[in-house]
Amino acid sequence: MPRIEEAQPKYLQIAHHIRDQILRGDLRPGDEVPSERQLAVDWSVSRPTAARALEALSHQSLVEKRQGSGTYVRGLAVNRRARELYGRAKQTGKIYTPGEYAVITSAGLLEAPEHVAEALNLAAGTRAVHRRRVTNNESGPITLSTSWFAPEVGERAPKLMDPDRIREGTLMYVENMTGRQGSYAEDRMCARLATDEEAADLQLGSGSAVLIVHHVVYDLQDRPLEFAEATYPPGRWAFEQGYPIG
What we know:
Elements: H1 10-24, H2 36-43, H3 47-59, E1 63-66, E2 70-73, H4 82-92, E3 101-111, H5 114-119, E4 127-137, E5 140-149, H6 151-156, H7 170-178, E6 182-193, H8 196-201, E7 209-219, E8 224-232
Antiparallel strand pairs: 1-2, 3-4, 4-5, 5-8, 6-7, 7-8
Helix pairs in contact: 1-3, 1-4, 2-3
C-alpha cells in the first residue's frame, strides 16, 4: 500500500505515484485513474487532498476529467526514459508496453568512444560491450539508444553480445547475471541536430532537432555499471520530477 512521507506535500506524492504509472505504461491512454474517494482511502488522506492530486495531473496534461464519468489518462506521445523502463521491468518483468518493441541493430565489442570510456572508468581504447537498438510502436521509431558495459560485464552476461531481444531489459539481466545491483543513476540532457544516421533510424528529415540523454547507472559500491545514450525525436513529451518552491 502506498505510504505518505513528510518530504513533499501529500497531494504531490499521490500525483507523482500516478504519473510514474502513466510514464511506465502501467496506466495507458484511455484508462481510468482512481477516483477521489478511492485515493482518499488508499492513501489515508482527505478528499480535498485527493482532488488536488488529480488537479495536479490535469495541469500536467496527463489526465482529463469527463463529466459524470471519471478521470482518464490522456493520449500523449511520451518519451519513456531509462528510469521509467526500468521501473516497468521491476513491476511487470517486461520492459516495453503492449505495442512497443525494440530492434537490436548492433551488439558486441567496440572500442568505447572517449565519453563512454570516461563514464565507465575504462582506459582509452578499451573495447566495451555495446547494444544499439531502435524502439518502435505502431507509429514507427520512437527512440534510438545504445547501452555500453565494461568487457568483464559482457563475460558474465553473454546475451549482451547477441542481437536477440532481452525480455526483462538489459539492466535487469545484467543485475541477475553479475549480482551487481543498480543503486542510483545520473542523467544529462541536451538538444542538438540529429546526425544523418540518427535521422535515418528515427525517420526524421535532415537537420531535425533531437533530445540526447546520457544515463549512467551506479551499483551499490558507487561503481558505474551501465552507460546509455538515448536519442529522442521532437514532438514527444519528456517529464521531470515536480517539486515545491518557496
